[in-house]
Structures are given as C-alpha cells and as structure tokens.
Design a protein that fits this description.
Layout (H helix, E strand, L loop, with lengths): L1 H30 L19 H11 L4 E5 L1 H4 L3 H8 L3 E5 L5 H14 L4 E5 L16 H7 L7 H4 L2 H12 L23 H5 L19 H17 L4 E5 L5 H9 L3 H15 L5 E4 L6 H4 L13 H10 L6 E2 L4 H22 L11
Parallel strand pairs: 1-2, 1-3, 3-4, 4-5
Antiparallel strand pairs: 5-6
Length: about 350
Amino acid sequence: MAEQDAKRRTLQFLAASALILAVTAAVVICVDPFFHYHKPWFGLAAVQDQKEYQIPGVLAHVDYDSVLCGSSVVISMNTDVLEERFGGTVVKAVADAAPAPVLTEYLGRAFLHRSLTRVFYGLDVFSFYSDPDMEVFSEDVAYLANRNPFDDVRYLWNGEILTNEVPGFLANPAAEDYSWGKAYSFNDAMPAGPDQVLAGYYPTGLAEVKQQPWEEEAGRVEENLNRIETIVAEHPETEFLFFLPPYPIVWWDRAYNQGLLDSYEQTLRVCLKRLLAYENVKIYTTRFNEEHLITDMYQYVDVVHGSTAVTDQLARDIGDLSMEITMENYEDEIAKLDEILWRFKARVDAEGVGFLFEVKTG
C-alpha cells in the first residue's frame, strides 16, 4: 500500500510539473515578447524595446516592406516619418556601433523573409572596421537567432522572460494605439548641450597628430563593403537609400586626435564611390557637413549622438534631392567637412572650448 502511494505521489508530482511546464511554455508562445514564433496576437502592440533579442524575430514575423539599418546614431529616428514620406511599413534592423557584419546579417534575414521595397542605411564609417568574421550574435542571443528548436528551452522556460518580459509586453497598449516608429529610441530621455558633449571630448592640444594609414584597415573595409555590395547587386528591385549621419564636429576632431581621421575619410570615399556605381542606390548628405548644425553642441546629447531634433530631421532629409551625393560631388562633400573641421580646430586652439557654450539660433 505504501509503495502504491509513493508511486501515485510521484506520478502526481510529474504530472503537475509537466502541467506547469506546459502552461509556462504556452504563455511564452502566446505572448512571445521577442517575436520568436509569430507577430503579436490578441491585438497586442509590436512593442520593441530590446533590439538584440527582438530583431531576429521582427525580421522573420512582423509585417514590413522596408528596413532601417544603422547604429545607435540612427536608432532614435522615427520610422513613422519615413512611412509618411515614402509609404509602406518600416522596421528597424539596428545595432549599437552597427558592426557591418551584423547589419549585413540582418539584411540577409530581411530579404529571406520579405521582398523589400526600400532599405534606409546609415553609413557609419567605423562600422566597416569590424572583423568581417565576427560572431554576429552573442551567446545570450544566439538561441533566438539560430534554427535549432532544442535551444528554445532557453526561451520557453526562462524566469526573466516569464516574470518580466511577458508582463511588460501585456502592459503595453493595443496595436492601433501604439506607434513603434520610435522603437529603441533613447535620446528623448537625455539632456542635450555642451556639458554633455564635452564630457567625452578631450582636445590634445597637439599641433599635429600622426594619422593611421588607411591600409591598416583596408582589408576589413573592403570585405565588409563587398558583402553590402553583394546584397545591393542581388536585389536590383530594391531601392537602397544610404545617408551620412551628422556627427558633431567634436566627434570628427576626436577621430583626428585618435589618428583615425584620414582613414575614416578614405573609407568614406571608397564607400561612396563604389556604392554610387549601382543604379538602385541613392546617397544623401543629411547635413553631415552642415556647419551650423554639427558645430552646435546644443543639438547633441553626447560626443556622438544627436538630440531628438537631429534624429527627427534625419528622417525628413532622406530623399531630399538638394542633399544627394553623386559621383560628381562626393569628393567635394568630404572636402566641405574637412574645411569645417580645420576651422573648428583653429578656433579651439585659439580660444579653448568656451565658445561651444554660445547659444545658436536659426
């Protein structure tokens, strides 16, 4: 009798455990905060707040016909504006520091699942310096990006997802009331101004800084660019709209101080010249060399990132014919930036950085 009771209790325990596991998995599958299995059900909003974990699922399951690629410099762009101007539905395929191998992986996945009308791509020169053979997905994310169903145990029975991600996803408004145009945005919560920018800017005071030869990084640049070109060439029906984010002038000066300016500018030349050779490519300055903007530190939240005013303007500038870069003018556009930088450096050398606190208008 005691032996039968023990077996019964064991079976009851196993049945209860199986039920708990099944219910837990069912809840995660139905809500699916990382879009691993499907786009949102039950009228829930496609809330995007953890890009590394969500983008593989977004590209596989959410409805879209265009993609915005880039680094944290463009993450805060409002894709609602792009949709209003160009039509269609745009999702973000973005990454901090935007390593080129990560963005090409995202684009490959997007084209695998969708016929894209447009690709909006922020050209960050530093992204081409990434190792072309880097691990695109970290161990924490790989189980969401691979095709191994056995790895899904890390998603279906994950305490963090069940107790934090699922309730957070359910707490968001219904899809018809929610705009995901500002997905992953962060600059609206950050103050802008010289104090914030100068915290990451350290003038060397040196009259001349030795610049790193471009050839030291040419191999990585060429390979990463080759892979982007391959995607462009394989999809002639897709319009690729590349644009140059407007970094503050102190970012370019910092690049000079780090010995990277010449290399960055050569990378930019190579990228522009090669990409402009394709009929389905357009490239825009988007004010990357507009002196009034990039020397106004009240428009930036740190030494790299623009304020909401900058990212909102970015979304409005893409496609502006007055900002189009061509084979005939790309060298001139880079030269304009150079002129602004040397004027800026001369003034810093003469006056220090106090003039950056002057309020600009207009």
